Amino acid sequence: MQYGYFxxxxxxxxxxxxxxxxxxINYLGSEDFYGLFSxxxxxxxxxxxxxxxxLTRYRYNNVPTDAGGRYFYIRDGGHAxxxxxxxxxxxxxxxxxxxxxxxxxxxxxxxxxxxxxAFSQTSFVPLxxxxxxxxxxLTNESNADKDVDIFSFIEFCLWNANDDMTNFQRNFSIGxxxxxxxxxxxxxxxxYRERRNHxxxxxxxxxxxxxxxxRQTFLGLYNGFDHPETVFAGKANNSxxxxxxxxxxxxIKAHLKPGESKALVFVLGYCENPDDKKWEKPxxxxxxxxxxxxxxxxxxxxxDKALAVLKxxxxxxxxxxxxxxxxxxxxxxxGVWNQYQCMVTFNMSRSASYFESGIGRGMxxxxxxxxxxxxxxxxxxxxxARILDIAATQFPDGSAYHQYQPLTKRGNNEVGSxxxxxxxxxxxxxxxxxxxxxxxxxxxxxxxxxxxxxLADSLFAHLKRSFDYTVTHTGPHGLPLIxxxxxxxxxxxxxxxxxxxxxxxxxxxxESGVAESVLIAAIFVFTGPDYVEICRRTxxxxxxxxxxxxxxxxxxxxxxxGWDGNWFLRAYDxxxxxxxxxxxxxxxxxxxxxxxxxxxxxxxxxxRAKKALDSVRERLDTKYGIVLQQPAYRExxxxxxxxxxxxxxxxxNAGIFCHNNPWVTIAETKLGRGTRAFETYTKICPAxxxxxxxxxxxxxxxxxxxxxxxxxxxxxxxKNSWLTGTAAWTFVSISQYILGVRPxxxxxxxxxxxxxxxxxxxxxxxxQNAVYRITVDxxxxxxxxxxxxxxxxxxxxxxxxxALGDGRTHEVKVVMG
Length: 817
Ligand code: BGC
Ligand code: NOJ
Prior knowledge:
Blueprint: E1 4-7, E2 12-15, E3 25-28, E4 33-38, E5 45-47, E6 54-56, E7 71-76, E8 83-85, E9 98-103, E10 107-114, E11 117-124, E12 131-140, E13 146-159, H1 161-164, H2 168-171, E14 177-180, E15 185-188, E16 198-204, E17 210-214, H3 215-219, H4 229-233, E18 246-256, E19 261-272, E20 279-281, E21 284-285, H5 288-296, H6 300-318, E22 321-324, H7 328-348, E23 363-364, H8 365-375, H9 380-391, E24 403-404, H10 422-437, E25 446-449, E26 452-458, H11 459-472, E27 516-517, H12 518-537, H13 541-561, E28 571-572, E29 578-579, E30 589-590, H14 591-599, H15 608-620, E31 621-622, E32 625-626, E33 629-630, E34 656-657, H16 661-670, H17 674-684, H18 693-696, E35 704-707, E36 718-721, H19 726-738, E37 741-744, E38 747-750, E39 760-766, E40 771-777, E41 786-791, E42 794-795, E43 800-802, E44 809-816
Parallel strand pairs: 40-44
Antiparallel strand pairs: 1-2, 2-9, 3-4, 4-5, 6-13, 7-8, 7-13, 9-10, 10-11, 11-12, 12-19, 13-18, 14-15, 15-16, 16-19, 17-18, 20-21, 22-39, 23-24, 25-26, 27-28, 28-29, 30-33, 31-32, 34-35, 35-36, 37-38, 38-43, 39-40, 41-42, 41-44
Helix pairs in contact: 7-8, 7-19, 8-9, 8-10, 8-19, 9-10, 10-11, 10-12, 11-12, 12-13, 12-14, 14-15, 14-16, 16-17, 16-19, 17-19
């Protein structure tokens, strides 16, 4: 069953009933201030770092699910009695005469109605300002006058989300607020008296009848969000929180004649003061930054204008790559939603979603590098800055902090380093950036190692150390040592963990110096040639020669020790035993090494590539995508680690781990098998499963990290939507390898590989300050091959469009055959 539909013209997903099979969320915010926003107005917001600077509280794993957000309670019908309801459905689960939630690019709008009173809530974070705006419009659609009471409600978080959920002996005594304008402006200033120089603001642009800032007073100690005492009593208490749980609630009265509307603008903002300007007078915070925000967004018109600016911003961004094709599901995913998700993964890495609590992982070295692949064409300047941040967390020996905190940009000591694939992703990310922009200058940027300025060297030096790290850390077969894990965080071959609760990844208690990864070898062969090109194009011929030899030798090593007969092996464990081999009982074949080796071109010359992909298809493919390995591990294996800890069919233990499905898609295009490539693309693509939402459960407009595999009880059910490398890699697979518009060092390569039945498509691509309108004609019905290509009417020699950089639009006609 479907719970909504795509409105392609508006670039919105329209949810038509509130009780979706899981909260279906959107992200508000573009750069520093972010909100997670569900279809029933649940969620929370934070400034830059979901762990350290969280403005509003959110209880993960709560019952009922998704309780807490920006809520508006309506009391329709005067002060005695009246009809009390919540127009976003939650938290009261009110029966609604109408309901719709439109998730758009950086904004959401919930519209509903009950008993002749219509409500709409438009929520977004304006560009460049650190606040959420919630514009509310109430309309009297009945024939009689209405007296309406509106109560707003948000619950403040005491900043550090981890402490906020754990340290109650302190927290219940530190909460502080200030109230101004009779309660229209509520300030949350916990810890401002001592070391913080920031506070939060919850304000409305109209006079209020009252306010509350103490949760217990507003709700009643034994009540949930669905039964706030104050709303039922019909009158705010003007409570000023002292300790316990500070909240923000406004009570507004409105009189509406038939047909009349009233608009209110709520601002939920983050404000910072310089240390010497913290106070207006003793004990009173300096409101200057809050006043500036409220002056700017003090009217419905100014809110509308800010939303229009946000929409223009997204029009321009998505204009950089758009698709027109008969297959609307592919076109809307590739042209809109997939790119939108790439922006979100770029911004969030793996920090905050409805599955990532925002207090665990910060930015991942591996993850953020891969996220760049799907993002770099959107805002190359931000990709550049990110690359420099990531590279600064590399160690002098080329290894890297596995994670870093976005706020401090410093590597995270608790997790440390030792994930031996990490260094190579830097080469991958930097190459993608240079191919997109032509900016070789980035290689000369001085970047610290280990965040220490005194250790700074050029970005190129970072790449060299990445490359060398793999060359110099090999095991008995000459394959790269895996370290704590490679891409598959759960292949913990040097952690023999028996102790419940201990980290599979960071407890390296069996440093074998033996366990090797075929995947890292394949990543090396895939990304190495880009390193060679970078060397050549910057006059480092000798280094290029050295790299070519190292890549050739790694390729030989894979062929000699990484091949199992019908597919590529996955790894060798700490005893030198094979993983991902026919000889194994479980875990005989893995997707990662096979996808990546073929992407790297290994075995294209001798039939192994085809054999490997055919084996993947035969053994791992399902109707919902390709599972990570087979047979699933039935028992826990001390020598393998977390991969065997999951029940069969989930996560890395034979789940459909979507992230590496596109590796197979790309690999299939290497073989020229367009039909098969497209099939692997569509199977995990959420838009193709829209009418299967009861099983899939998660948002039909975004990818999920995992879909339960065939061994699992709920085969086909998705988990962990939004923050996944699937976003970037599927975008690469569809845009660069299936539609085949691929940035290379010399320009834009046109190399489509599509199903024979796809008669053509067109793409508009902005590339290095020129626009290419590319039309592909496949009336020949082939899967790969360009018969002719014209640029502005003239035949082009080859299939690489030069970077014209002239600010103009160019017509490109491609005929396949
Ligand atoms: C998950 C992995 C994830 C890792 C992060 C594991 O529990 O299965 O998917 O990458 O945690 O630390
Ligand atoms: C999710 C992690 O974020 C990513 O870094 C890892 O590669 C995959 N899980 C596979 O374990």
